[in-house]
Known about the structure:
The protein is an alpha/beta fold. It has 18 helices and 14 strands. The strands form 3 sheets. The protein has a 6-stranded parallel sheet, with helices on both faces. It has a 6-stranded parallel sheet with strand order 11-10-9-12-13-14. The protein has a two-stranded parallel sheet with strand order 7-8.
Amino acid sequence: MKIVVIGTGYVGLVTGTCFAEVGIDVICVDIDANKIENLKKGILPIYEPGLEALVTKNVAKGRLHFSTSLQESIAGAHVAFIAVGTPPGEDGRADLKYVIAVATEIGQYMNGYGVIVTKSTVPVGTATKVNEAIKLALLKRGVSFEYDVASNPEFLKEGAAIDDFLKPDRIVVGVSSTRAEEVMRKLYKPFLLNGHPIIFMDVPSAEMTKYAANSMLATKISFINDIANLCEIVGADVNMVRKGIGSDARIGHKFIYPGIGYGGSCFPKDVKALIKTAAQNGYKMQLLEAVEAVNEQQKAVLFTKIMNRFQGDILGKTFAMWGLSFKPNTDDMREAPSLVLIEKIIQAGGQVQVFDPVAMNEARHIIGDIVKYSDTEYEALEGADALLIVTEWADFRSPDFNRIKELLLHPIVFDGRNIFDGRELNELGFEYYGIGTK
Length: 438
């Protein structure tokens, strides 16, 4: 079986590599010639644990190929995945120009039956637009081929994407014909041998499933953050509350960890897009609007704690920041709370010394030299008035607290992810400020 994956960003590269890993012949296509040349050399445009080794392995085995030519790659392909970006527009809706451009190009070059699959996160109705673009391109060529358009949303967690793809909780596929279902079932057969479920449904439902899933997870995060803020006011400890409610099987422990808000390429974008989709159809998503508002507010919580501690004046103060990426095990800083915190501290006259295990280069690309970059987490502490925990990297969970105390000008910790035990730090002589704790 041969497949083509158009787009070598996060989703496209993981998708193509993991299909190659189970023995499928894969061509990943991208218009960025420099990116393609780097991929051929084993140089990846993203950081994802385990991905580089799999790319190198499958290129060497001749199962994974990279190309800038969709015209040459599409010939004989059984399935073509559209995995290009769908960035949010100014009004929050997903921008589909890249998806439609790829669909048009597929129509210009396809030479027989194939299943065209939207892998990118796209709003309900996108498959219809893809179908129209392909049909128009074929009409202009004066040819006619049978094809199907399907939806196969991804459910990859950055930092754990390889396992998520190779050992999926579920595989969701939206199809409109028995033929397309047979092709997709054959494609995913290697992943079903261990009992992983594949769920077939109509195309609009598959498109909606992705947005509904991410919006539900974002809702859980904003809910526990709202509860954390109330806990501080009434004197409760959100860490205890979280354990109490998480033991209820109907709620569970996942995604109820308080912090300084969610970020990344998915949750913020998808919540906004679903709100916009509802508005376009005359419906108001009141709950999701609140989820988004709480999240934006939460990104400023740590800064508020800092200003309260320093009586509203941080002019000339220096802060050590551990963590830049929006979550551990990725260099992704899109919508990262660290960006909001850095901006607010600098605007208030403070300085920031940062360290992140993998996101330093990405930070330089996004914010330049407005912060001081440190080679280690301990170097970032030198001459700092306080430590800020912004990303819950495993590297930070069991540090040398005596060394931290020696390097800081003042033994103050603002823990935006509640990775430390506040009572323990108090006993060690630190001032500790967590989220939703006493």
